[in-house]
Amino acid sequence: MADDFDLVVIGSGPAGEQGAVHAARLGKRVVVVEKEPVPGGTAANTGTLPSKTLRETALYLSGYRARGLFGVETVLKREATVSDLLYRERRVKETERARIDVNLERNGVERVQGKGSLVDAHTVLVQREGHPDRRITARFILIATGSSPYRPPLYPFDDPRVHDSDELLDITALPSALMVVGAGVVGCEYACMFAALGIPVTLVDPKPDLLSFLDTEFSGLLRERMTALGVRMRLGHSVEAIQVPQENTEPIRLTLAGGEMIEVDQVLVAAGRSANTAGLGLEPVGVKLGKRGQVEVGSTYQTAVPHIYAVGDVIGFPALASTAMEQARVAVLHAFGQVQTISPVLPYGIYTIPEVSMAGETEQGLIAKGIPYVAGRAGYVINPRGQIIGEGRGRLKLLFHRESLKLLGVHVLGEQASELVHIGLLALVAGAGTQLFVETCFNYPTLSEMYKTATYDALQQLQA
Ligand SMILES: Cc1cc2nc3c(=O)[nH]c(=O)nc-3n(C[C@H](O)[C@H](O)[C@H](O)COP(=O)(O)OP(=O)(O)OC[C@H]3O[C@@H](n4cnc5c(N)ncnc54)[C@H](O)[C@@H]3O)c2cc1C
Ligand SMILES: NC(=O)c1ccc[n+]([C@@H]2O[C@H](COP(=O)([O-])OP(=O)(O)OC[C@H]3O[C@@H](n4cnc5c(N)ncnc54)[C@H](O)[C@@H]3O)[C@@H](O)[C@H]2O)c1
């Protein structure tokens, strides 16, 4: 005998939670199947929130924000320990799990613990050790099973000193020297955190450019700032060999192509992620999978089987918690008859030290498309709030269409970049331009005022 629902959601990360709650708010009968005993997925438990909390802890323990500000030198308050580093991470994680529990319960979403898989196009089998199997049927199925760290075969992950980004949260001692393999977003964020704590960090990636999706000017600025923080960049280099001695007092030796040998005592491998689709039974029911097991979907997140939707990391790019939640909203509303599309402009917030954030076009993108533009810049150094907080090297850049003066792109590097970008994001979504920034009265002194400064800079260049 099977239970019958309007929607069964597999996975309780940001995509699953939002999908379930949006359907429940439409009065639908919804169940979430989650294999772990706690909800929240990568965002709450191993990725987004833990890493952002560790960043905040690293900034606090290292006195980073106060360095040089008050005429006294603030360095690491004391030798930071792993428990110092992880204390708040644990608190934030617990609070977030409790918030998700309440959200699902308040909206009447049923929850079942166990590993879900499809036995036919309308039936999910839930299996949990020591419990009888359960079959759940539903009109619609939402696949929100997320992703897991990709583990390149070169690295011996069974050694306790070689970590992926999940295992990093269980370290028992801080590294005295760390090698970060992979200079994607995860690698860059963790490299900055450990460097801020005064730990020597080497960052290696076969790609020569740092975060090449960023505006080239901002990618360059970030590279400079990370280098100044103490991250040794080995971009355009691959690791050819790794030697991990049995005795953990002996250093781990990594040999780069070209012969350079680097000794460290811990290694973090952040080489991308693979979709969690193995064993889900998707292909037998007609759902199509692409590279690294990602589910193929259309613009409304329907798979090749129209009543089965997939959202979040399981469908691949851009693989962010922010976009996962939006995709889930669009998919569920579409399933229950409401036409919705995802915003055409999606922001990026990268929590390196300093933060970098962007929305819309990059300069190199506009040049490639042949779109005429003018760039306006504002430095934190000439902004009163920037001076007060001591962020001397941050920058905001606005890209406007040269004729219509509409905003085309916004780029920020510095304190609060991932918050500041939203002013530009809203302007982009609204189709606004220079006039909006000129005619808006901003609080004073604020970093947001840089929008006015950058706009005047762009207008002055046009006059010139
Ligand atoms: C270190 C790190 C930092 C990050 N920082 C950011 C950031 O700052 N901002 C941002 O927007 N994004 C960030 N991300 C990305 C973000 O965490 C993911 O994009 C987001 O968690 C994806 O949500 P999801 O719901 O698709 O998947 P997940 O959060 O991975 O959740 C999937 C859930 O499905 C469950 N599941 C899997 N298979 C089954 C099954 N067969 N049956 C039942 N349950 C199953 C899993 O247990 C899990 O709970 C970060 C990621 C990492 C790794
Ligand atoms: N602030 C944020 O929005 C945020 C933060 C962290 C993670 N995330 C998301 O999490 C996902 C995973 O991040 P990620 O950084 O692991 O993946 P990624 O795909 O962004 O970067 C992986 C990097 O590893 C390199 N690489 C691959 N194989 C390698 C190897 N064998 N040796 C050395 N380098 C290798 C690649 O060249 C690439 O630069 C991304 O989709 C990202 O968007 C987002």
From TrEMBL:
<keyword id="KW-0520">NAD</keyword>
<dbReference type="GO" id="GO:0003957">
    <property type="term" value="F:NAD(P)+ transhydrogenase (Si-specific) activity"/>
</dbReference>
<feature type="binding site">
    <location>
        <position position="272"/>
    </location>
    <ligand>
        <name>NAD(+)</name>
    </ligand>
</feature>
<feature type="binding site">
    <location>
        <begin position="145"/>
        <end position="147"/>
    </location>
    <ligand>
        <name>FAD</name>
    </ligand>
</feature>
<dbReference type="InterPro" id="IPR023753">
    <property type="entry name" value="FAD/NAD-binding_dom"/>
</dbReference>
<keyword id="KW-0285">Flavoprotein</keyword>
<dbReference type="InterPro" id="IPR036188">
    <property type="entry name" value="FAD/NAD-bd_sf"/>
</dbReference>
<dbReference type="InterPro" id="IPR001100">
    <property type="entry name" value="Pyr_nuc-diS_OxRdtase"/>
</dbReference>
<keyword id="KW-0547">Nucleotide-binding</keyword>
<dbReference type="InterPro" id="IPR050151">
    <property type="entry name" value="Class-I_Pyr_Nuc-Dis_Oxidored"/>
</dbReference>
<dbReference type="InterPro" id="IPR016156">
    <property type="entry name" value="FAD/NAD-linked_Rdtase_dimer_sf"/>
</dbReference>
<dbReference type="GO" id="GO:0050660">
    <property type="term" value="F:flavin adenine dinucleotide binding"/>
</dbReference>
<dbReference type="InterPro" id="IPR004099">
    <property type="entry name" value="Pyr_nucl-diS_OxRdtase_dimer"/>
</dbReference>
<feature type="domain" description="FAD/NAD(P)-binding">
    <location>
        <begin position="5"/>
        <end position="328"/>
    </location>
</feature>
<keyword id="KW-0963">Cytoplasm</keyword>
<comment type="function">
    <text>Conversion of NADPH, generated by peripheral catabolic pathways, to NADH, which can enter the respiratory chain for energy generation.</text>
</comment>
<feature type="binding site">
    <location>
        <position position="52"/>
    </location>
    <ligand>
        <name>FAD</name>
    </ligand>
</feature>
<dbReference type="GO" id="GO:0005829">
    <property type="term" value="C:cytosol"/>
</dbReference>
<protein>
    <recommendedName>
        <fullName>Soluble pyridine nucleotide transhydrogenase</fullName>
        <ecNumber>1.6.1.1</ecNumber>
    </recommendedName>
</protein>
<feature type="binding site">
    <location>
        <begin position="182"/>
        <end position="189"/>
    </location>
    <ligand>
        <name>NAD(+)</name>
    </ligand>
</feature>
<keyword id="KW-0521">NADP</keyword>
<dbReference type="Pfam" id="PF07992">
    <property type="entry name" value="Pyr_redox_2"/>
</dbReference>
<comment type="similarity">
    <text>Belongs to the class-I pyridine nucleotide-disulfide oxidoreductase family.</text>
</comment>
<keyword id="KW-0560">Oxidoreductase</keyword>
<dbReference type="GO" id="GO:0004148">
    <property type="term" value="F:dihydrolipoyl dehydrogenase (NADH) activity"/>
</dbReference>
<dbReference type="GO" id="GO:0006103">
    <property type="term" value="P:2-oxoglutarate metabolic process"/>
</dbReference>
<feature type="domain" description="Pyridine nucleotide-disulphide oxidoreductase dimerisation">
    <location>
        <begin position="347"/>
        <end position="454"/>
    </location>
</feature>
<feature type="binding site">
    <location>
        <position position="116"/>
    </location>
    <ligand>
        <name>FAD</name>
    </ligand>
</feature>
<dbReference type="Pfam" id="PF02852">
    <property type="entry name" value="Pyr_redox_dim"/>
</dbReference>
<keyword id="KW-0274">FAD</keyword>
<feature type="binding site">
    <location>
        <position position="313"/>
    </location>
    <ligand>
        <name>FAD</name>
    </ligand>
</feature>
